[in-house]
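Kindly go through the entry underneath: sequence plus C-alpha cells. Please state briefly how this chain folds according to its C-alpha cells.
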Amino acid sequence: PQQISLSQNATIEVLNSQIEIQQMFDLQISNEPLEKLRFAVRQDADQVHPPQVIVDGNSTYVELVETMGAAELAAAYPGVMAPEPLSNENAKSKSSEATPSTWQIYQFVGVPELLGTKRILLETSITWDNSATALPGNSAESPDKAVAPERQTKHVHVPLARLLIPANTLRLKEQWVLLHNQQLGVQPVTG
C-alpha cells in the first residue's frame, strides 16, 4: 500500500504594504506513486496574489480546478480539513454577514510521477493597507502630530495552503515562523 509522510515549514513575513507567505512541504511517497496532487488556498480576500509553485527546484504550473465552501471541502478531505469554527466575533453577533470561507482548489500540471522524496514550495503574498495599524508616535502623514495613545488594530487573515493528500498521511513536523518589522505590532491568532 501507498505510504506518505509530510512535514511543513511556513514563513509569514509582515511588511509595510504586504504579507509574504512561503510554505515548504517535504513529502516522502513510498510503494505507489501519488496520481495527482492538489492543494487548497482560502480565498476570502481580493488582495491575495496567485501562488507560485516550485517542485524539486523547478517552477511548476498549477491550474485552478474548482472552488468549494469550507464545509464541502471538510467533507471531501476529512483528514486534511477540520470543520471551520466560528470566530468569537461571528459567534457573538451571529449576523448574516458571517459567511464561511471559500477555498480555491489548484492541481499540479505536468509534474512527473510523484514517488520518493518531493519538496514543494508555495509562495504568495497579500497586499494590505497598514495605515490604521501605526503604533503611537509613528504617524507617517504628519510626523509632528501625535498619534492617539491607544493602538489601532486591523485583523488580517493569512490563508495558508493545505495539501490535499490522503487522510492516512503521516504528519511529521509543522513549523511556523512569523517575521515583522518594529513598526508593526503582530499578534498571531490561530483557528
The longest helix spans residues 70-76. The beta strands are 3-14, 18-34, 38-42, 52-55, 58-69, 102-109, 114-127, 162-164, 170-180. The mean pLDDT is 77. The radius of gyration is 19 Å.
